[in-house]
Write a structure and sequence with these properties.
160 residues, mainly alpha, two-stranded parallel ribbon, two-stranded parallel sheet, 8 helices, 4 strands
Amino acid sequence: MGSAKTTVGKLLYQKLEMNFIDSDHAIEKSEGKTIQKIFHEFGENYFRNLEYDFLKSSNFKNSIISTGGGMPCFGENMKMLNEMGSTIYLYTEPFELARRLELSKKDRPLLKTLKGNELVKYIEQKLKERNFYYEQAKIQLDTTRFSPNEIVEKIIKMIN
């Protein structure tokens, strides 16, 4: 969360003339509810199953997919993503993620009650739990000090 996956994905799809799919938006559309409502009404496990179903049932040919931050960490999701094409981990330092996420906490069910240093600690813990999966990405890029346009240029160089 907060690593600019959606922003970078949209810029990439424009430059590479590919399709763009945001998994969270696709799930919201298919469910007719926000991610926040899905979490509230059915819980995280239900949502993670929706993410898995999304990966299994969709055709992603010639597409850039922006996944939710937890998607690669459940079941066989990361393996499936790697089999589909190039996967990219946009690493961002916890303090920078906290700065970015502070602006959008109300829309993020896992963060909305965290304040100040609690948010940084939460991010550090999540990264510790999830890095095993994230580091399975074929491309890993530290995005902490780069603008979305700079990140896109770096990715294009890496995949060419």
